[in-house]
Amino acid sequence: MDLLERYLAAVQQELPKEKQQDVTRELKANILDQLDAMQEQAPSLTDEERIHSVLKQLGPPKQMAHQFAPPTPLIPIGLMPLFSYTLAMVFGILFLIQVIQSSLLWLGNENLGLLLMLKHMAGGFIRDATFAFSVITFGFWVIGKEQGSACKSAASWDPAKLPQLAKPWQQIELSDIFIDLATYLFLLLIWYPVFGQSLASAELSIHSRFLLQAFSPLLLLGIALCAWQLKQRYWTTALLKCNLALNALLVTAIVILAWASPFYSSVPAQLPWLTTEQLERSITITLLIIALIPGWEVIRDWRRLQQFDN
Description:
The protein has 310 residues and is mostly helical. It has 3 domains: 2-68, no CATH class; 73-143, no CATH class; 163-310. The chain has 11 helices and no strands. Helix 5 runs parallel beside helix 7 (174-197) and helix 7 runs antiparallel to helix 9. It is elongated and about 95 Å long. The chain starts with a helix and ends with a helix. The model is unreliable at 192-202 (pLDDT under 50). Keywords: Membrane, Transmembrane, Transmembrane helix. The chain crosses the membrane at residues 82-104, 124-143, 177-195, 210-230, 242-261, 281-299.
């Protein structure tokens, strides 16, 4: 029986303290039942041979302990599809940024060879992707912890507090929340680099620089609204009104920014083939197209509010 006690001790060592006694007692009873059954089937075997055979079938102690107390993954299984989707989207955006920045650097520097440009692009992408992976993983770990805490407090829930989800669109998908959150974080991180540092030799006009600084808090409000949606997970009248107001402000800000002419005071030296008029027109058209996205959400939320009133 010494081999059996050693096996039980090894399994117990891999278990949480609160489960050690119960699991060890149950496992020992199961093993003894198997030994009794094997004694009737193979009476010629010694006790040590029977114990060795049963333990061999059960597997290593760590594997057996995980059957009774599975290890908690860093990212919950239910969040893995969204976690993978978020990583792919963010990595794609970061790669695109590195391609644009490295290409502009290569065009503006005659002494920079193609291999050095590729090295610069790869190094920048690896640096940014590592940071993004750490931040996203930490965020999903926090969300998993909150979900676990919510499950533990399930016994105290009150049925009277169930939301009235009369409309099919009231439930907010996690993918929609994280797409909005990633967009706001992306804009917040590249707001100034895109309009300033990526075209390093071009100076923003005073009017444009003031507008960029004035409208930046809208991105922080968008992040706060995403956090509210993560906690609420369904549309209410208050949440719809806040989302409508934020998108209306974003449309106004983008349109004002689009007509803030001149946007750049001069054409960058990296782009000698682009005139000032062409650059200004391209920025205006791009911003107006971007304004269509929050504009559509304003119309959508307005119609949903009307459905609430009805």
